[in-house]
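Thread: quick sanity check before group meeting

JM: Hey all, I'm pulling together slides for Thursday and realized we never actually wrote out the predicted structure for the chain we discussed last week. Dropping the sequence here so it's in one place. If anyone has concerns about the input, flag it before I start.
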Amino acid sequence: MSILIRPIITEKTTRLQEELRKFTFEVSREASKPDIKAALIERYPEIEIEKVNTVIMPSKPKGRFTRGGYIDGRSKVWKKAIVTLKEGSEIDLFSEV
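JM (edit): ok, ran it. Output follows.
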């Protein structure tokens, strides 16, 4: 199982990348900060990581109206890693697309 699942690309995370050199990834729930750092260095060997912060995102109630009535459920619980890079390091997430 891979530690890095996907990069999170939103308006807010793009602004963090440009202004503060912070990159956001969805990671495995069992991954620790040293595991995340090692996986990022393996994937992007040219970067230097300053620090790694993690957040476990809680489940949220979701629902929608259909012809058959209201369907309710919950979103999944997932872990987010916010990685701060040292000055001069950069990850080009869009070159892989």
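AS: nice. The beta strands are 4-7, 22-27, 49-57, 61-66, 69-74, 78-85. The chain has one domain: 4-61+71-96.
JM: adding both to the slides.
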